[in-house]
Amino acid sequence: MSLTNRKNEILMAYLFLFPTILFYLIFWLIPIMFSFILSFTEWSGFDLSLIKWVGIENYKAILSRGSTFVNPVLINTLYFAFGTVILSFIASLIIAFMITRLPFEGFWRTLYFLPMVTTVVAIGNIWKFLYDPNYGLINGLLNKIGIQPINFLNDPKIALTSIVVVSAWASIGGAVLILSAGLKAIPEIYYEAATIDGANIFQNFWYITLPLLRPSMLFVLITGLITGLQSFTLIMVMTTSGLGGVGGGPANSTNVAALEMYNQAFVFGSWGKATAMSFILFVIVFLITLIQLYIFRKGGVEEY
Amino acid sequence: MFRLIFKKVLAILTVSILAVSIFTACGSSKEATQENSEKKQEPVKLTILTHYSQEQEEALKKQIDKWNKLHPDIQVVHKSVADFGQLLPTIMAQQTAGQQADILHVYALWAGQLATNNVLAEVPDEIVEDIKKNYLPTAIDTVTLNGKILGYPTEVETYGLFYNKKILQENGFNDPPQTWDELYNIAKKVTKKDSAGKILIEGFGLIKGWDSAVVHPYLSLVYSAGGSFVTDGKVDLTSQPAIQALEFEEKFIRDGITDISFDAFKGFPDEKVAMVINAGWWNSSLKTLMGENYKNVGVAPIPSPDGKHKGSVSYGFFYGVNSKSKHKEEAWQFLKWLNSEPQANGGTAEGNFLLSLSIIPARISDINALKKELEEPNNKPFIDALSYAVPELNVVPGQKIKTILQNHIEAVWTGSEKVKDALEAATKEINQELEKIQIK
Question: What is the domain range of residue A283?
Answer without folding.
Answer: 72-303
